[in-house]
Amino acid sequence: MTPDLRAHDETAVRATMALVDRVRPEDLGRPTPCAGWDLAALLAHMTAQHRGFAASAAGRGTSLDEWQTRPLGDDPATEYADAAEQVIAAFAAPDVPERTFALPEFGAEVRVPGLRAVSFHFIDYVVYGWDVARSLDLPFTLPAQLLHAAVPVAEAIPDGSGRLAPGAAFAPRLPAPDEPDPLARILALVGRPPTWPRS
Q1: More confident site: 59 or 6
Q2: Phi/psi class of residue 85: alpha, beta or left (left: φ > 0; alpha: ψ in -120 to 50)?
Q3: Which of 3, 12, 78, 96 makes an SS bond possible with 125, Cβ 3.0 to 4.6 Å?
Q4: Mean pLDDT, the chain, whole residue set
Q5: Which pLDDT value is given to residue 195?
Q6: What beta strand segments (E) does the chain contain?
Q7: Residue 116's closest CA among 99, 129, 135?
Q8: What is the torsional sign of CA 63, 87, 137, 30?
Q9: Which is one Pfam family of this protein (predicted)?
Q10: Residue closest to 154 by CA, chosen among 114, 125, 186
């Protein structure tokens, strides 16, 4: 049974909001741990994903238009915060565990239980938060309980050749046997080198 990770998801999302609020226009061209994406592309994707998940929670997520990544506007931090508040509010609905979410990015007919969809969003924003922090050369700290809850979510993500496909969310897993640091283990499981440096 999928645990209810909505409180952890909100904490992770709010941590990303604090980071994005520190982004300045001159930062948008910085590289990120997401191969081929600068910070502007990453923030645009993060904003779009919030909106897509919020739409899906409300039963409108079947159209890819709801998930469309759009270029950043003049105030990316405000735009991002607005989208983040939308998804936080959407996930807070008491009947989310009983809902079914459409996730058209995985296929036109893909539907998943509400709490499983929340778990997908949760692991994304644990990782994306680290991506943004690394891009900005800032620390990224999340509560230990949250990180321990994220480890099994990362472990459940299928590995294999699909992670090499164009547009794959995560790179192939990296070795991390018995990694005592839960964030480092999560990063290895999603193919992010925990020591990624900006070049």
Answers
A1: 6
A2: alpha
A3: 12
A4: 91
A5: 82
A6: 100-102, 111-113
A7: 99
A8: positive
A9: MDMPI_N
A10: 186
Q: What is the pLDDT of residues 145-187, one digit of tens each?
A: 999 999 999 999 888 776 667 666 788 888 876 668 999 999 9
Calpha distance 52→56 (Å, rounded): 6
Tokens 């409180």 -> residue: 7
Q: Please state, for a pLDDT cut of 90, what percent of the chain lies above it.
A: 70
Give the bridge partners for 111, in sequence order.
Answer: 102
The dihedrals phi and psi of 32, each to the nearest 5 degrees, come to: -135, 170
Which range among 6-15, 33-42, 124-133 shows the weakest confidence by mean pLDDT?
A: 33-42
Q: How many CA atoms lie within 13 A of 189 on its CB side?
A: 22
The domains found in the chain, sorted by start residue, are 6-189 (1.20.120.450)
Long-range contacts of the stretch 66-74 (C-beta < 8 A, 24+): 67/104, 67/105, 69/44, 69/45, 70/44, 71/44, 72/28, 72/40, 72/43, 72/44, 72/47
Residue 199 confidence (pLDDT) = 46
